[in-house]
Design goal:
Layout lengths: L1 E5 L4 H13 L3 E5 L8 H10 L5 E2 L6 H9 L6 E4 L6 H6 L1 H22 L3 E7 L23 H19 L3 E7 L1 E3 L18 H9 L6 E4 L11 E2 L1 E3 H18 L6 E5 L5 E2 H12 L5 E4 L14 H7 L7 H20 L1
Parallel strand pairs: 1-2, 1-4, 2-3, 4-5, 5-6, 6-11, 7-10, 8-13
Antiparallel strand pairs: 9-12
The structure holds nicotinamide-adenine-dinucleotide.
Length: 342
């Protein structure tokens, strides 16, 4: 198998490459413009795996450059398409950037698949397309909500584009709807390293713990949840990575060109923000500096996944619990501190 991972320098892409190198004999290439990562990720991948991955520094929203790049890699079996911008707030401020990057990027990938006869595609989607859901947990038949941000819109539109293209193009397409990917590789040598102020809870917690952020806020403590704070479904990034291998294997073997396959990837457990903070304090022995704050506009009260379909059809069984998610994130943050001070 020969596989291209777009966005291989990023958080989920790098963990997926490591998983591929560890568990398969696939030949893997990355395409990443480093708009939200650094080339150093590939040094880290090499340090952990002993293998050097070729990354093509190409913007997937540039069709000519993308096609010329993929043409250099003959007989590709599948593409795992992670490359996208993902900051919700930034997408509200710069919608054109998000539509151009995420939608044009996807169109170009599909066009290249068509022209270069690449029949398998795995697309990174997101639970943000479900919005505020009355009946929890959400499964794949839950109707999609009106999207709350241009970022979420690019995922919902992306899925709609895939469904249309699937009907006209002989391809096997899978969209994986991630809940909240967190945690870091077991080595502690690679993890999420936001270039800008982090949006996600785990890096906010670990950055507050090392003093990179003075203090953190819990946005909303009057929600209709166990302790009043928002509830999310956190899932270890290595479990998410593994699902891509299973999905691509299934895609290749299935050769089902009739419809796009959609799968939720979540742990199935709802965890509140305050529970996450308590878990961090427990595993680290530290006290976090946080304050209880007002609700934030656009935040969903509670969401967690029913991932039975991925378990049944892909054989995907998440292995890491909340404490492992938190302790691996913490190990990674401490590694970054060590490197900073070296
Ligand atoms: N991390 C999450 O919480 C989450 C949740 C749901 C869905 N997703 C989706 O998963 C995918 C991967 O997310 P991530 O957390 O690894 O993000 P990330 O920002 O760490 O990685 C994305 C990578 O893609 C690259 N990239 C972006 N646009 C590009 C372009 N036009 N050309 C080439 N490279 C480009 C970036 O440089 C980066 O290395 C994204 O599509 C994201 O929307 C992420």
């Amino acid at each position: 198998m020969k596989v291209i991972v777009t966005g291989g320098g990023g958080y989920i892409g790098s963990h997926t490459i490591l998983n591929i190198l560890k568990e398969t004999t696939w030949e893997v290439y990355s395409i990443d413009s480093h708009i939200n990562s650094t080339p150093e990720t590939f040094d880290r991948i090499e340090k952990i795996s002993g293998k050097r991955i070729t990354n093509y520094n190409v913007d997937v929203s540039d069709f000519k450059a993308l096609k010329s790049c993929i043409s250099q890699i003959p007989n590709v079996n599948g593409i795992i398409h992670f490359a996208a911008l993902k900051a919700v707030g930034e997408s509200v401020e710069q919608p054109l950037l998000y539509y151009r990057n995420n939608i044009q990027g996807l169109l170009n990938i599909l066009e290249c698949c068509k022209d270069l006869k690449i029949n398998n595609l795995i697309f990174s989607s997101s639970c943000s397309i479900y919005g505020n859901v009355a009946n929890l947990p959400v499964d794949e038949s839950t109707p999609l909500a009106k999207t709350e941000s241009p970022y979420a819109a690019t995922k919902a539109m992306g899925e709609a584009i895939l469904s249309d293209v699937q009907k006209s193009q002989k391809m096997s397409i899978t969209a994986l709807r991630y809940f909240n990917p967190v945690g870091a590789h077991e080595s502690g040598l690679i993890g999420e390293n936001p270039i800008n102020k982090p949006n996600n809870l785990f890096p906010v917690i670990t950055q507050t713990a090392v003093g990179k952020m003075d203090k953190m806020s819990v946005f909303g403590v009057d929600y209709n949840t166990r302790d009043g704070s928002c509830v999310r479904d956190y899932i270890h990034v290595s479990d998410i990575a593994k699902a891509h291998i299973l999905a691509l294997e299934k895609s290749v073997e299935r050769k089902n060109f009739n419809n796009v396959q959609f799968y939720n990837l979540g742990s199935g457990n709802g965890v509140s923000v305050l529970e996450a903070l308590n878990t961090f304090e427990k595993i680290s022995g530290l006290s976090l500096n946080y304050e209880l704050d007002e609700r934030r506009v656009g935040d969903v009260e509670a969401i967690y996944s029913n991932s039975a379909k991925a378990k049944k059809e892909l054989g995907w069984i998440p292995k890491h619990d909340l404490e492992e998610m938190m302790s691996s994130s913490w190990k990674w943050q401490q590694q970054l501190e060590k490197e900073k001070n070296a």
